[in-house]
Amino acid sequence: MNGASRLARRLVPVVGIVLVAFFVVLAVSKPRGEAEVSSPLIGNPAPAVQSTIIGGGDFDLARRKGSWVVLNFFNSTCVPCRNEHPELIKFADEQTSLADGAELFTVVNDDSDEAVSAFFNEKGGDWDKVRDPDGTIAVAFGVAKVPETWVIDPSGFVRMRVAGEVTASLLSTRIAAMRDMSNGLGS
Amino acid sequence: MKRLKGRLVWSMMAVLAAVLLAFGATRSSGPSTQEERIDAISKRLACPTCNGESIYVSRASAAESIRNEIARQVAAGQRVDDEIVAYIESRFPGSLLLPPGEGVDSLVWVLPVVALVCGFGGLVVVFRKWKREGDVQANADDAGVVAAALRDYEDPTEGL
Known about the structure:
The complex is a heterodimer of chains A (187) and B (160).
Chain A: H1 3-28, E1 35-36, E2 50-52, E3 58-60, E4 69-74, H2 79-96, E5 103-108, H3 113-123, E6 128-130, H4 136-141, E7 148-152, E8 158-163, H5 168-182
Parallel strand pairs in A: 4-5, 5-6
Antiparallel strand pairs in A: 1-8, 2-3, 4-7, 7-8
Helix pairs in contact in A: 2-5
Chain B: H1 2-26, H2 34-43, H3 61-76, H4 81-91, H5 107-134, H6 140-152
Helix pairs in contact in B: 2-3, 3-4
């Protein structure tokens, strides 16, 4: 037996162990969750957004002033978007019960009206879905991947950006804190 | 006199090359069409979701959206190319493909020129040295060494 084949026989179990370890890590690792990330827009006026709503109607972000607005960038084929959907339903229900609850809007990213409508019909969620056919809204906010969730305060200033899956508790807690602060209740 | 004339010719060629380079680097290529502007801007920006691809090349959804935005702003005619690039860069930080010519980043532009000049200078020095060595004349001692070597040389074909 020459040196090369001896070396190959020793390498085989090492490569096997590395591969098994790799698949174990993949299997047990959790997908990347919500992450509040920075943006040059935070603390600045939100970009102008004018579009139409699936099912009829116009959307103008400037006309939402006076309310906390949550924009969720979404695509019906994106797995994290589908995963976070129950959390958005929970958040929307919580906000509906508040006198000054936030308004939630889905911004459709690179998806068809039919696919989005079919998804919401199946999974629930009766808030408005804003079209973004040429990606103007996504570029204005600097959204490259979905899902992303943005919070805009009643004065029209961007307050928060979450990349990846979001939870109802994060949104509710952060908006409540910012609301209290803007009402002068924060320390 | 001949050497002076040679230096003069080389100097004139160097000045001419410098003038042509300066002219080529600073001249305007004239008005561009909207498509040319969109392509030129797209080539300066990196796709935010791909590795090593420009907006111009990439077919990713985010790249398509940015290309649409560039086209929209070019059509609106309210911003020059650098302003459109700055807008996209403000939304997608780190999307500039080419580093700006400021600070440490400017080394990217300066170092190749310095290397070129040093390389050219080195070649000039080496060529001149070789030329000087080529001018050496054999003296009487050298001729004696060669003659002795020829005398001692035995022709391997001799006697065949």
